[in-house]
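User: My collaborator and I are trying to settle a disagreement about how two of our proteins should look. Neither of us wants to argue from intuition anymore, so we agreed to look at predicted structures for both before our next call. Could you fold the first one, then the second, and keep them clearly separated?

Assistant: That sounds like a sensible way to settle it. I'll keep them separate. The first protein:
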Amino acid sequence: MTALVVTLPACSGSKESDDKNANDKSVSTAEIRDIAKQAYIYGYPMVDNYRIQYSYFQDEQSSQYRSPWNVLHSDAHVATPADTAVQTPNSDTPYTTLGADLRAEPLVLTVPEVESNRYYSVQFIDAYTYNMAYVGSRTTGNKAGKYLLAGPDWKGEKPAGVDQVLRSETDFVLALYRTQLFGPDDIDNVKAIQAGYKAEPLSKFLGKSAPAAAATIDFVVPQNPQDQRKSTQFFNTLDFVLQYVPVQESEKDLRAKFASIGIGTDKKFDISALPADQQQAFQDGLTDAWNEYNPLQAKIDKGEVVSAQLFGSRQMLGNNYLYRMAGAINGIYGNDQAEAMYPIFRQDSSGATLDGANKYVYRFAPGQLPPVKGFWSITMYRMPESLLVANPINRYLINSPMLPDLKPDADGGYTFYVQQESPGADKESNWLPAPAGPFVLIERLYWPDEAAINGTWKAPLPQKVA
């Protein structure tokens, strides 16, 4: 399939164009509108990323607050229907999070040895929302290790005792640690592994004096997700974020174009200070951005564009800023396809919406379990909330660690009963309880085999039964 690429016209990048802003009459309102559309598509993931990290690491009054910058936070519990803060909560891999501020110096990250049959990963996401690096079972193995996480201005060499240097294009990096949970009784083992995750400044690791602290940042308060989609205050936040997102060689002309309407210069941008016609041009550009985006979302909803196409490194996504925007909208911080795949089932095999008023079976034929080197799971979410489903057996998913307790079919395949009521005592081991109303199933394949990546293996569809 041909990728959808946002084509951004080049500009001169000259000092004259860099000095322009929206108040410069040489930039017409039509040009402002067009550039604002491009800036919105380009900047949406970065602004949404900033909103989340502000709540995680900066706003201590937020219900989502985790820890200060450069301090690890582990959350080890089995997600239940009581967990309502985050949509589609993951009950497979309890999270550890780290908001890294690398302006003063790099961080040295320590991971413990993890038993060979347990999957874990550390995903590093830069301020562009590119997946810049991985540590874990797939990439570095389950042995203990030390990794230096460095920002764009650090020019040092790998210190003794460090296994690898991870270099980021931005000073602010989010690290997401996922540690496989085999089941509720395994939670203390996960906690022990999480206790072995460490983060320390390079100077402390080397036993040297710390460098001067980075300048204090006057963080702007981000918009909520709804306003971010419709208010031109978005451009004020984007202007702030771009201070901490260095211009890459491949984007010099693009960033100069944004600067020509006042975004990303050394002067603070304030949309409210512009004349009414220019403010309207920004508003129209925002609307144009969504009009360009909506056909892509329709393709995603139909399965014509899949999650594997929306997440990855700069090398993978390149200048496909519309896909990068789609990644943020549909599930920001998604993994590279090589790390995880996420088949989503909203409909049954006939194309009808999944609903707990009906009964379904979900069957893996003999030899057709999801091909993974890590593990797989199928999780139930009630809609429209995308939350876990309360049920009499407190089961929210079926996953590969459960296979010894599941009953295989006579031919060696596995049939799961997806319905609201128990299918009966003889089938209850394979029951995935559903809500009374609409639901979706999300299948997760961690460290998928090539057969899943290249499409040789395809996830089956739920089938409605009488």
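The second protein, kept apart from the first:
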Amino acid sequence: MTKGTKGAGFPSADLVRAVLKGHSGLGLAFAALLYLICLTGTVAVFANEFQRWENPAAEHMEAMSGEAAQTAYRAVLDRAEGPVEHVLIIMPSEDRPWPAIRVDAKDGSQTSWIADKAGRITGEVRDGWTRFLTRLHINLHLPRSWGGFIVGLAGVALLSSLISGVLAHPRIFRDAFHLRLGGSRRLQEADIHNRIGVWGLPFHLIVSLTGALLGLSTIIIGALGMAVFLGDTAKVYAIFTPPHPVEDARPAPPLDLRPMFAQIAARAPRGRISYLAIEHPVEMGGAAMFEVADGSSRLANADNYAFDRQGRLYHEQKAAENNVGQQILGSLGPLHFGWFGGGTIKIAYSLLGLGLTYLAAGGVTIWLARRRDKGRPALGWERVWTALVWGQPAALTGAAITALFTPSVTLLIWVWAAVGIGALIAAALLPSATLSQAGRAITGTVLIALAAVHPAVLGTADSMALIVDGALGLVGFILLAILVLRIRVVKKMSRPNVDEPDRAGLTVRV
């Protein structure tokens, strides 16, 4: 072996340096967006639990009969103030043990109702916080196509960062349990960053890949349409979705769903209806489409049945007969959000998601610490980043407590934006240590207040509401306890320069 090739291997030192530079660049370019998406995604794992928290008085049931569904369906049509385009009935499930009936009017408005076991309407669904949270994660409250594209692009950036992070650290797996604690803050944070990255790598890869595919689905379908069907994307959608009924706008009585329920029971005796969508319910071209979980352990286990106005089955698709593409498509949502396997999976997803949120925040923290160690501190960016990291939890909790008093998602967006912008304004006035302490204090206090006020405003008839309140209060208490401990440590160390940024305050710890 010659001197020039001695020690050469894969990856080479030059490749490692180049990949590390690209890894840092990707992280910095998408840092704020990735942090927000990861943070909201971690909380959105419990979307169904939050729906129960918002509607604790809803009557619980294991299933809803066809007779009750017909009664509820007719009742919401009678309540509609204008022409109705669609009616969606979401059946009771283990995660949300009550039905929701949504009416989509032709003017674009939507109204959702809750029904009891007999199909009587008991009130409107409260879902302001749940919709605010999930839409913020899925499309950032931007128009669906644009917001989804941006989130999908962030998923691609996250996936690329994970891969480049592994390539940039050849010893990352060998050093999986090596932590340099108590020494240099930068090295300590870098080790924690790398260890969380490698311990949760399978989860991180799955979530980033499925998020990218879900967010970029419109682009992917458009590309397939151009490549295969001369730009006709409807033909691409037709591969994965039931066909729409023949258009016939002549007035007609509401569809009778009961014979359709009977046919579903006969065709899928072990199946469980997840939802049914009624298209053009008072037109001759009306139809009803059922999604039925077949009871198997597959992630994509939904059978599809579509009936015309006369109750004739005109489409049937069994999950067991799906091709590979349909299986993959049907698995993306459950895999991304952790909506499979019950509460244990959700808790695991939330903890792993918290680690991914830490990664999104910690990368910038390490970069800022490295600049400071090299004598080129970016004090302004340190304050901005601290304000963003701790301003978002405060903004989200502010939106959550506002949701107790109003169903308006628009108002929640304004509260979230106002708190977030206020935190960034404070970055121009306060040192990062103060910003970190204020963010922790506000978030912890509001979480405890949220847990205390919720029972008084909405009640606790649902045991899940008590569990959610307990979890919110516990997280708030932990945040405040850590804050008090950190203040005591700082006082003990007696740091003379109160304006020096608290690098630990730049990281996300719960």
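Some points you might bring to the call about the second protein. Strands lie at 84-90, 100-105, 110-115, 121-124, 272-279, 287-293, 302-308, 313-317. Confidence is low (pLDDT under 50) at residues 1-8, 498-510.
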